[in-house]
Amino acid sequence: MTTSTRRRSARAGRPLILVLPAVMALAFLVLPMIGLLARAPWRTLPERLTSAEVGQALRLSLVCASSATVLCLIFGIPLAWLLARGEVRGLGFVRALVTVPLVLPPVVGGVALLLVLGRRGLIGRHLDEWFGVSLPFTTAGVIVAEAFVAMPFLVISVEGALRASDPRYEEAAATLGASRWLTFRRITLPAIMPGVVAGAVLCWARALGEFGATITFAGSFPGTTTTMPLAVYLALETDPEDAIVLSIVLLAVSVAVLAALRDRWTRGPL
């Protein structure tokens, strides 16, 4: 039996009772995006995209999301390596802690950050007293909040790439006298680079769309902490068309992320 024949047989055997709920689910996911595009002010879109408020929120979002991604790369790759290659007890528990921000309500994450890094927080009060550094309600606070919610995406992706890589190359480098740092730099990192890139893209997209932790920990001050998601929320009360324009920008970013990762995440079996 040929492949095409098997496919036709499989399609013929699919129960029709599943088709209707499948179509309804697809409509449920797609129609809101179609509605957003249908209500977009296309004629004034270029003007609105270049307005001071929208441009300010867009620039701040890009800077903060990119900075948060850099932080996640610096600290997330070593953490992923520890989870994948570490030989210490309790790694399963550590892995669970790393994934907590994925399921934790972002507002709760913002409250937790305030209790730790706020001026009266466990660490924040010492930062304020000793170094005069205060993170809440600043641009740096936005970056910290975005990194907190986005880092698990990078860690999970890089850990998966590390577990899938062949350790024999690292073992061969070790037998030739290469140090662990040299082996990681020259052997391990190039081998897992696709996973690092995929994780960084997902991390950046998550940071760009972060709302709850940001507004709780950093507040909303135009030009300082008002990122695009916060600007969407505020614009709904004053100028809904600006909110639609910003939403379209975030939608375009999401589509671009999916397009960039289509071979890794969205491509189904042939």
UniProtKB/TrEMBL annotation:
It comes from the Bacteria. Keywords: Cell membrane, Membrane, Molybdenum, Transmembrane, Transmembrane helix, Transport. Residues 58-261 form the ABC transmembrane type-1 domain. InterPro entries: MetI-like, MetI-like_sf, ModB_ABC, NifC_ABC_porter. It is found in: Cell membrane. It is a multi-pass membrane protein. Its main location: membrane. The chain crosses the membrane at residues 16-38, 58-84, 96-117, 137-158, 187-207, 213-236, 243-261. SUPFAM superfamilies: MetI-like. The keyword Transcription does not apply. Part of the binding-protein-dependent transport system for molybdenum; probably responsible for the translocation of the substrate across the membrane. Belongs to the binding-protein-dependent transport system permease family. CysTW subfamily. PANTHER family: MOLYBDENUM TRANSPORT SYSTEM PERMEASE PROTEIN MODB (PTHR30183:SF3). This is Molybdenum transport system permease. It comes from Nocardia thailandica. The gene is modB.
